[in-house]
Specification:
GO terms for molecular function: transaminase activity. Helices cover 39% and strands 14% of the residues. It is an alpha/beta fold. Strands 2-8-7-6-5-3-4 form a 7-stranded mixed beta sheet, sandwiched between helices.
Length: 409
């Protein structure tokens, strides 16, 4: 498994054969990825053959429930956790809100939660609102020049009152990969649990959550080639401590405790297509048969990251030296996601429009990272131009983007 076969990868995504999208290069993947055919096939099958109440005695119902269980078991295995430690919800934003309500029920007034200003609002706002219930909110501040989160600054915030530390695996505008294992170790040593927002990292390879060590890990399937669902890992020791947020009669089922609303049967079942896709990449690239799921995911993760890193560095080099452009985050590709935010001397939405005219699909705005951009001194009226790609992006698309940037910048 030495190098990603980009032609094979793109053959797994119907979008690349769609006439309406031909000739356009997609660089707003941080807002949502294309969907792989394995997910589409499962979703189509469920809606045409299984669209009944699942877990019943008749065949369509039995198979529907079986496919939902398959999705949970296979995705949990890829993430290196037990099957009942993985829950599905309508979105990561909603899952985080439910978690915040659970912590509010467990914590006493005077207890503290650490959040960052590097986060997307979905992993920050629900926790910050707990201040209304007497919970102290402590902010781990990013460096206003680099966007980096210093570990020393976190250590200064930790004491016996802190029950939870929340931070992103990587920010959706800074892009730098945060050291999850180190941060988790610091928090655990202080007696705190850890919640990691993996939404901006997961599209670039599923994390081995079991090895990384956080108590909570969240991400969104619609950004990892799947349907619009939020996936939430809560490790058993914490999940059993938190008060049940679901129906009282589901309190004994770990994966139902944090799902207050009825699940989307079809989309959960379709999530197994993400595991199908990872397995297909593993097999196509010569992965050994019989390899455990987490190891398969790790191997594919490394293939994805190597490909992305090779494509990302030329983009960083092209923008970091421009006088009219401020590159947010590191200028080296090795420790960052291919999510590149640029602060410009004019409104970023206007530049995104100019790129669209050149058949480059990108975005301009604040991307719900208002606190991070404010801390970095970015003019919110202008926002940032965000150029984000993933492993199915080709070298030719990067070249088209660079040529278009030369035109508009």
């Amino acid at each position: 498994m030495n190098e990603l076969d980009i032609d094979y990868v793109r053959s797994q995504f119907p979008a690349f054969a769609e006439p309406a999208l031909q000739g356009q290069a997609f660089f707003e993947n941080a807002g949502g990825s294309y969907t792989c055919r394995q997910v589409i096939d499962r979703l189509f099958r469920f809606y045409t053959q299984r669209k009944v109440q699942p877990y019943g005695a008749f065949e369509a119902s039995r198979l529907g429930g079986q496919e939902m269980d398959e999705a949970r078991m296979r995705m949990a295995a890829l993430l290196g956790v037990a099957a009942d430690e993985l829950s599905f919800g309508p979105s990561t934003t909603q899952n985080t809100y439910v978690l915040a309500q659970a912590f509010a029920g467990m914590m006493q007034p005077g207890g503290a939660i650490v959040v960052t200003d590097q986060d997307h609002e979905a992993n920050s706002g629900p926790w910050r609102r707990l201040a209304e219930r007497g919970i102290e909110i402590r902010e781990w501040k990013l460096d206003p020049e680099s966007g980096h989160l210093e570990l020393d600054a976190l250590e200064d915030l930790l004491d016996e009152n802190v029950r939870l530390v929340c931070f992103p695996h990587c920010s959706n505008v800074v892009g730098e990969t945060n050291p999850v294992t180190q941060i988790t170790a610091l928090a655990h040593a202080a007696g705190a649990f850890v919640c990691v927002d993996g939404v901006s990292y997961a599209p670039h390879g599923f994390a081995d959550v079991g090895s990384l060590g956080p108590d909570i890990y969240l991400f969104s399937a619609y950004k990892t080639y799947g349907p619009h669902q939020g996936l939430m890992v809560i490790r058993r020791a914490l999940a059993e401590l938190l008060p049940n947020q679901g129906h009282f009669f589901n309190a004994d089922a770990l994966y139902k405790r944090f799902t207050p609303a009825g699940p989307d049967h079809a989309q959960i079942a379709a999530c197994a297509g993400m595991a199908d896709y990872i397995d297909a990449l593993h097999t196509h690239h010569g992965g050994a048969q019989g390899t455990e799921a987490a190891a398969r995911a790790n191997g594919v993760h490394d293939l994805m990251r190597q490909h992305e890193t090779r494509l990302l560095q030329p983009l960083l080099d092209a923008v970091k030296s421009r006088n009219s452009v401020r590159l947010i985050g590191p200028d080296r590709a090795e420790n960052r996601a291919p999510t590149v935010a640029l602060a410009l001397n004019r409104p970023a939405a206007e530049v995104a429009t100019a790129l669209a005219e050149r058949r480059i699909m990108a975005g301009g705005g604040d991307f719900y990272a208002v606190r991070a951009l404010e801390a970095l001194g970015v003019d919110l009226d202008k926002g940032v131009l965000r150029l984000s790609f993933t492993h199915y992006t080709s070298r030719e698309e990067i070249e088209a983007l660079l040529n278009a940037l030369d035109d508009v910048l």
